[in-house]
Amino acid sequence: MGSSYGNVTLRGPTQAQVVERLRDSGIVAYVSPTRDGVTVVYDCRGDRDPSALRAVTLWLSREMRCAAWGTLVHDSDVLIYHLARDGEMRDEYDSFPGFPNAGFQRPAGGDAAVLCREMGLRACDPAAVEAALRRTGHTF
């Protein structure tokens, strides 16, 4: 059995701003220190419930008025992400749609250019990110 974890990476707001907003909402989460304009939120439901992670990603992007990238790794086999800005979903990705109930399927969704742009990754090579998104192996 592999590892499972989820988090939401925010571009812009500080740790203090995020903690204040989460406290007001009643969401239980760990919040990283802000570094280079990036703060990571570890929602306690994020590694077990993809729909909760999606909802929190949208909510944080709207409340904090920023880009929010919610990622979930399930059993070290599947990567799912949701990318939102200002409360609107911009991109979604699933490395293994239908897992574990479906046979192998190619990754679905994911737009490397959108991901690099929305998360402010200036040194990002969209072609390299796109290649990683389309890999069919189980290497994370």
Which oligomeric state applies?
Answer: single chain
Extract low-pLDDT stretches: none
Cα separation of the termini: 14 Å
Total DSSP E strands: 7
Structural class: alpha+beta
Relative helix content: 25-40%
Shape field: globular
SSE order in H/E notation?
A: EHEEHEEEEHH
Arithmetic mean of pLDDT: 87
Q: What can you tell me about this protein's structure?
A:
With 140 residues, the protein is of the alpha+beta class. The protein is 30% helix and 29% strand. The protein is built from 4 helices and 7 strands. The chain has helices at 15-25, 50-64, 112-118, 126-134; strands at 5-11, 29-31, 38-43, 67-74, 78-85, 88-94, 108-109. The chain has a 7-stranded antiparallel beta sheet, sandwiched between helices. Strand 2 and strand 3 form a beta hairpin. The chain is globular. The model has no long low-confidence stretch (mean pLDDT 87).
Sequence-ordered SSE layout with sheet pairings:
Elements: E1 5-11, H1 15-25, E2 29-31, E3 38-43, H2 50-64, E4 67-74, E5 78-85, E6 88-94, E7 108-109, H3 112-118, H4 126-134
Antiparallel strand pairs: 1-3, 1-4, 2-3, 4-5, 5-6, 6-7
Helix pairs in contact: 3-4
Throw out a few tags for this protein.
140 residues; alpha+beta; seven-stranded antiparallel β-sheet; 4 helices; 7 strands
In a nutshell, what does this entry contain?
The protein has four helices and seven strands. It is α+β, with helices and mostly antiparallel strands.
